[in-house]
């Protein structure tokens, strides 16, 4: 390989790394401002200034303000540096492989407790701003509907174990999980009432077992 080709590849690699770092700074600045100031008060110009880039760079790297917020939510949900569809996330794969309903719920309680630490603050900003901003209202609807679909799939997976209460429909199971795993519950108990993340995780698992399963494990029944 010629030195010229090596130099061009090196330059391209360097530009790509710089673009990734720029995007990271933009998203970090956007997250800080949205959470501190709210959606309405946060402008692309404010984000650009905090990230040390131009407004045009923000638009080129991520997009306008709704796209910035959506990207932050998607990354918080995935827990990685790129959006990951719900069924492909690591905990979802492990849940499908787990044979028992209790095991599936334990994995999910762990996952929800961990991810809500990232997601809940953003979801509360999104919820509060959606009524006044049509662009965010659309994001809220899409994410809410996607969560509901994912919970329906989770309910079917739980039902496949034969361990769910027979008086519950799949829609009822999905709605119970959908309601209790929300950002509002996490925020009220962990942020407002001072629960630890571990206590919240245990409460989720205990509640799901009591509400959904035919036979409640001894630890939950006796607690």
UniProtKB/TrEMBL annotation:
UniProt domain HTH tetR-type: residue ranges: 20-80
Q: Is DNA-binding given among the entry's keywords?
A: yes
Q: Which PROSITE patterns match?
A: HTH_TETR_2
Q: Which Pfam families did the record assign?
A: TetR_N
Tell me yes or no: is Zinc among this UniProt entry's keywords. Answer: no
Q: Which residues bind DNA?
A: 43-62
Q: Which Gene3D superfamilies match?
A: Homeodomain-like, Tetracycline Repressor, domain 2
This chain belongs to the protein called DNA-binding transcriptional regulator, AcrR family
- Entry keyword set: DNA-binding
The signal peptide stretch is none
GO MF, one term, reads: transcription cis-regulatory region binding
From which domain of life does this come?
Bacteria
């Amino acid at each position: 390989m010629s030195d010229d080709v090596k130099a061009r590849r090196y330059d391209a690699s360097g530009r790509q790394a710089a673009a990734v770092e720029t995007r990271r700074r933009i998203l970090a600045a956007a997250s800080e401002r949205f959470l501190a100031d709210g959606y309405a008060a946060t402008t692309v110009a404010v984000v650009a200034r905090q990230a040390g880039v131009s407004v045009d760079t923000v638009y080129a790297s991520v997009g306008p303000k709704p796209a910035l917020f959506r990207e932050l939510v998607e990354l918080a949900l995935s827990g990685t540096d790129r959006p990951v569809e719900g069924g492909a996330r690591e905990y979802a794969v492990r849940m499908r492989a787990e044979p028992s309903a209790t095991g599936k719920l334990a994995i999910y309680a762990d996952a929800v407790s961990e991810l809500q630490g990232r997601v809940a603050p953003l979801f509360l900003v999104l919820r509060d701003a959606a009524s006044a901003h049509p662009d965010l209202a659309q994001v809220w609807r899409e994410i809410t509907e996607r969560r509901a679909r994912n919970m329906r799939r989770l309910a079917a997976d739980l039902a496949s174990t034969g361990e769910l209460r027979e008086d519950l429909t799949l829609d009822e199971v999905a709605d119970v999980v959908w309601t209790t795993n929300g950002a509002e519950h996490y925020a009220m108990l962990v942020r407002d009432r001072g629960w630890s993340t571990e206590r919240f995780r245990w409460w989720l698992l205990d509640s799901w077992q009591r509400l959904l399963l035919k036979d409640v494990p001894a630890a939950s029944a006796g607690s």
